[in-house]
Amino acid sequence: MGKPTGFREYQRQAWPERDPVQRSKDWCDYTLPMTEEEVKKQGSRCMDCGIPTCHMGTEINGLTSGCPVYHLIPEWNDLVYQGQWKKALEREHQMNNFPEFTGMACPAPCEGACVLGINEPPVAIRAVERAIIEKGFEEGWVQPQPPRKRTDKRVAVIGSGPAGLACADQLNKAGHNVTVFEKHDRAGGLLTYGIPEMKLPYNIVERRLSLLKEEGITFLTSTEVGKEFPVSVLYQEFDAVVLCGGAAVHRDLDVEGRNLKGIHFAMDFLHANTKSLLDSALQDGKYITAKGKNVIVIGGGDTGTDCIATAIRHNCKSLVQFDIYPHKPSERLEENPWPQWPVIHRVEYGQKEAASAFGKDPRTYEVLTKKFTGDENGRVKAVHTIQVHTEISETGERKRTELQGTEKVWPAELVLLAIGFSGPEQGLLKTLGVHTDERSNVKAEYGVYQTNIENVFAAGDMRRGQSLIVWAINEGREAARECDRYLMGETDLP
């Protein structure tokens, strides 16, 4: 490495954030740029590990450790420190089609597996990653690169989220004629409508989509296969199909009062808000407003955080977030050693904004929702809960015990369910005749991606279940490789 002592000389520094009070008044990126010198210092903290673990994605105890796209992290860290930004960009793009997406929206399992993280704050890998790609766009280094030669093969990619885009990009690089089908009016999948504007601005997504179009990929939006585009025509016009439709079936709460008005799935809330924001700057009123309401978000993950940040920007009256799990420790426990993903307490951007707006972190822990009650008009007015104690057995089974006497009633005019997804929508899969597994995901072996239908492949959340953006990109790339092998008998794709 260019500076072997960098990890001893410099502290970790990620992207600075705008003031929570100010940023919650707009929909702009909540972060601030780092200077080149700051980014170079972060690059210098990379330790020249004998066996780096940051760039080798795997799963340990059900949690991701390291980078699933096998990013060449030590290489581009060093190149940034040396000021060789263009070479760093080449290394970055070598394994990741969309470093701007992962640099802004990935939870960074690479940092959880950083060797420095054993006893020091890890290298701010995601900050360096984002800085490299933004430098590339600023300098004009990121340009369309259409394939020099086309094959006569046509491939349909269904779904334009990170898996679909990565798959389409790779297949297009191989020279195939790729059409991406997206049922919504804008491409990008959850990158567009699932992640709020202040966390991943649409112009960042649109910038990459424009490049992909210039490179020859065709996008058909507002086109749902099986409805606007018949399956029979799909098979007639395309030599292969790759299913990348994601996991869109929401997990629900089967409790009394669930049918009351004012209870929504988190993704419906986020999707409608972003669409209205992009269409009319929220002037059309076609979104679920939190203005003046007591809002309760059920679910402690990233989607719940995004709901919190969005509700604050609507000027909600109050805000509470229920987490079924216990409050996490501030540091790793012995049973959660490196290089496992550190299961620790984190305060994300939404919680910071809520604390600034209401004086405290909105989360409350080990809370189980028992029922909803409503008013005379059938609208939710309260959520009834009880505290629970969670125990994990030696076999890993989770047992929750309700603590009598801890019942509570919370006022609420808007309830958002952010408890994840159970699997992909089944309609198209049944029409295609694709087999599914016991979890309702498309049945296709990891690394092979071929379904029971010879020319139909599957990748991303539709195959593996709800997961991370980096796993989606990983599977999209690998499914493209196997699809190319099927079409041509061999492949040069990684």
Secondary-structure blueprint of this entry?
Blueprint: H1 6-9, H2 20-23, H3 36-44, E1 58-60, E2 63-65, H4 73-81, H5 85-95, H6 99-105, H7 109-112, H8 125-138, E3 154-158, H9 162-173, E4 177-181, H10 190-193, H11 202-214, E5 218-220, H12 231-237, E6 240-243, E7 249-250, E8 263-265, H13 266-280, E9 294-298, H14 302-313, E10 318-323, H15 349-358, E11 363-365, E12 367-374, E13 380-392, E14 398-402, E15 408-411, E16 414-417, E17 421-423, H16 427-432, E18 456-458, H17 461-464, H18 469-488
Parallel strand pairs: 3-4, 3-6, 4-5, 6-18, 8-16, 9-10, 9-16, 10-11
Antiparallel strand pairs: 1-2, 7-17, 12-13, 13-14, 13-15
Descriptive notes:
With 494 residues, the protein is α/β, with parallel strands linked by helices. It has three domains: 6-138, Alpha-helical ferredoxin (Fumarate Reductase Iron-sulfur Protein, Chain B, domain 2, Orthogonal Bundle); 154-248 and 422-488, FAD/NAD(P)-binding domain (3-Layer(bba) Sandwich), CATH 3.50.50.60; 252-419, FAD/NAD(P)-binding domain. Helices cover 33% and strands 17% of the residues. The strands form five sheets. Strands 5-4-3-6-18 form a five-stranded parallel beta sheet, with helices on both faces. Strand 10 (318-323), helix 15 and strand 11 form a beta-alpha-beta unit. The longest helix has 20 residues, at 469-488. It is globular, with a radius of gyration of 23 Å.
